Amino acid sequence: MTATDLSEAAIEVMAIDLARYAAKQLVGAMERCRRELKGKLTVAEIVARLDDGRPGVEEAWALCPRDESASVAMTDEMAQAFGVAQPLIAEGDLIAARMAFKETYQAAVTKARDEGKRPHWFPSLGHDRAGREECREKVWLLNGGEPSPPQLESPGEHQREMMDLSRALAG
């Protein structure tokens, strides 16, 4: 499908690297690779196409608060990037702020994905009390409405599924 020749050893290593991700996420990412990829299939290309619940960089920027009154749902990576952009916003340089946000956000998301971290949404509560409860509810839903991530029933089975998917995609 992607004209990538992978040895059995390479497929096994790829499966180990991808085993930390949910099968549903990986199937979606691999489908995107099949449609979009012009070069070789790599773990980095697959991970870059994961839909893990984090917004894309443009959506993340749009979700950030524009003033102190707004309550917004943010991820840890959004907060990190917004912290870098905030001084530039205060200086009135929105173009530089957006560029700094994008670079920091993309690096933070890549690092979090490489470490297998799920997105953690939290409320950034503004002065306007009316929007606070709605923001809290949104955060609860974005976090899956549950206090902890689901555990894999059988990591070995998941790894075998990833090897099969990698073979099919490479073939």
Summarize the structure.
This protein is mainly alpha-helical and 171 residues long. The chain has 8 helices and 2 strands; from the N terminus they run ααααβααβαα.
User: Treating each run of at least 4 consecutive H or I residues as one helix, how many helices?
Assistant: 8
Number of strands: 2
Q: What's the gyration radius in Å?
A: 19 Å
What general outline do the C-alpha atoms trace?
elongated
Question: What is the terminal separation in angstroms?
Answer: 6 Å
What oligomeric arrangement do these chains adopt? single chain
- Across the major sheet, the strand order is 1-2
Query: Structural class of the helices, strands and pairings?
Result: mainly alpha
Helix content: 55-70%
Instruction: Please report which band the strand proportion falls in: under 5%, 5-15%, 15-25%, 25-35%, 35-45% or over 45%.
Output: under 5%
Whole-number mean pLDDT: 85
Order of helices and strands: HHHHEHHEHH
Poorly predicted regions are: 147-155
Major beta-sheet overview: 2 strands, antiparallel
